[in-house]
Every structure is written in structure tokens, then in C-alpha cells.
């Protein structure tokens, strides 16, 4: 009897350990915080990697120019399994925004939205005012601190080019917290 109880407990412990180790880890971008990064704070010394969140990161500077003039964009890009999954933008040495990119579906907002979420479902659930311009690559809407983007090619419009929804297979392509 003692042996069967011991084996039952042993197997239960093994099963629990296996199920916890094989479960995909998820993260939440909430209150401007994702892992060691916080909007409004200096970036500080980041860990070289955070298990399940990113394998490495690097600092980048990009020069841009448009009709308003030239500017420099500074950001950190975070990579997991060889793919950039989120970027952290800086202004005056502090984090100004965190943008989730394709491949980051394990990072969710407190409402459960993520990059890859069905765009039409988001459109129906959030009832946000969407901005859509034919010349822009994305349609976007903001709710609180979160801005959601969907490829403009996935937008459904009426005869006046006003956004009225998204194609059935359209997905959220970017989420930015400011």
C-alpha cells in the first residue's frame, strides 16, 4: 500500500513538473511596464536576457527625413529566437514607448489583446475611433495608452474611403504603449 501511494505521488510530481516546464510563458504589457522596461523611466542596466521574453537586445539609432525635416530615432530592439519582437523608444534618455511586433503574441495587454489578434474582433470589441488614410501603411486606433495598428491593405472601407471594419483574416500588426 505504501509503495503504491509513493509511486502515485511520484508520478503526480513528475507530471506537474513536466506540465509547468512545457507551458508557454506569457507576459503582460501593463502600466507601461514589460519585464525590466518601464515607460517614463531611464532604461538603466538591462539584463542581457530575460527567460521567455528576450534572448538579447541592441541599441539602434536611425536617421529619418520627411517634409517636416530630419530627426534621429533612438531605440532598443529586443530579439527572441532570432526575431525582433519588440522595440523600446527613447526620448531624452527615458523610455517613451514600447512597441510589440509580429512574433510577440505571448505578450498581451491587460484586456488580452496581442499582435496577431483578429483585427475585426478587436474592431468590434473596443469600439475605438480608427484612423485610416490611403497614404499610410496602417490603420490605427488608440484606447488609453495603447495604440493598435492593422495593415491598411486589410481595411474594409465604404464608398467615401471611411474605415468600416477589417477583412476576415486581418490581424493586429503592432501594439504600442505610450
Written overview of the protein:
This protein has 2 helices and 14 strands. By secondary structure, it is α+β, with helices and mostly antiparallel strands. The strands form 4 sheets. The chain has an 8-stranded antiparallel beta sheet. A two-stranded parallel sheet has the order 1-8. A two-stranded antiparallel ribbon has the order 2-3. 20% of the residues are buried.
Structural class: alpha+beta
Q: How many distinct helices?
A: 2
Mean pLDDT: 86
How are strands sequenced across the largest beta sheet?
Answer: 4-5-6-7-14-11-10-9
Shape type: globular
Q: What is the percent of helical residues?
A: 10-25%
DSSP strand count: 14
List the helices and strands and how they pair.
Elements: H1 2-22, E1 27-28, E2 33-34, E3 37-38, E4 56-66, E5 69-80, E6 83-91, E7 94-100, E8 107-108, H2 119-126, E9 130-131, E10 138-143, E11 146-151, E12 155-157, E13 163-166, E14 172-177
Parallel strand pairs: 1-8
Antiparallel strand pairs: 2-3, 4-5, 5-6, 6-7, 7-14, 9-10, 10-11, 11-14, 12-13
Keywords:
single chain; 178 residues; alpha+beta; eight-stranded antiparallel β-sheet; two-stranded parallel sheet
Would you kindly provide a brief summary of this structure?
This protein is α+β, with helices and mostly antiparallel strands and 178 residues long. Helices cover 16% and strands 42% of the residues.
